[in-house]
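Archive maintenance. Older records in this collection stored only the sequence; we are now back-filling the structure field for every entry so that each record is complete. The fields below show one back-filled record exactly as it appears after the update. Entries are processed alphabetically, and Homocysteine S-methyltransferase is next in the queue.

ARCHIVE ENTRY
Title: Homocysteine S-methyltransferase
Organism field: Streptomyces olivoverticillatus
Length field: 302
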Amino acid sequence: MSAPTTPLAVALARGPLVLDGGLSNQLAAQGCDLSDDLWSARLLADDPGQIEQAHAAYVEAGARVLITASYQATFEGFARRGLGREETAALLRRSVELARRAAGRAEREMWVAASVGPYGAMLADGSEYRGRYGLSVAELERFHRPRIETLAQAGPDVLALETVPDMDEARALLRAVRGCGVPVWLTYSIAGEHTRAGQPLAEAFALAAGDDQVVAVGVNCCAPGDADRAVTQAARITGKPVVLYPNSGEGWDEQTRSWRGGSTFEPERVAGWQAAGARLIGGCCRVGPDRIAALAAHLENR
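Back-filled structure field:
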């Protein structure tokens, strides 16, 4: 597959871009109730201004790339709330519009990444961190394609195929984006040197190695220490720029329903990530604007 050089690919060749941090933790800091199966996607319908405000906080912090609130937004999920396909399509497009509006507040060049979360995010039962849904690649492709087509029509700069726990789902996503006209990045959710479904990370990265539509490959929603090891593999196996946005490093206690431990997301890690090939660097769960500001300052001072 041969694709023309995209503006984002040109930007990545010039140097690293700072991604935003966790959208959900910023929304919670703004007082939003996310105790819902739709999670942050609920606000696309109920309070879109909060989403734009959260994006704006990361613009203020120095992010150059904003990831939309469409991670858990699906036709199936909104159908359970009584919304039809046209209404849901409008909300998916709104997710891109909100990020684009917030990005317009910056005086620097900005990019919008439309989030395409895994099938398990729609189930809202934690299976997005396990994979192995019992569905075929073809079935997963049929699930993802309508949402991808709708988001692509909204004009994002890139589609973020993110928090992918399983090689089968990665195969499905890479098939579903063909012909959509938008470049993509692919990031796995991992544990150590394996996908969450237990597959060797080297094999998972190799799926995207020859795909010119994929402008970056890497990991997200993982421990910072796991990102340290993954960046080198991703660069070596694919030859592509690496995208990394790990969690804070705190652990979630299911029994107490609270976070435990301290953050290990340190801007000083960026030097190693950048040297190993990382070009899109940010944060995921529990990484807020303060950490992104420190990360941006660290990159600017290098």
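Update note: DSSP finds 13 helices and twelve strands in the chain. Residues 8-301 form a domain with the TIM Barrel fold (CATH 3.20.20.330).
Entry marked complete.
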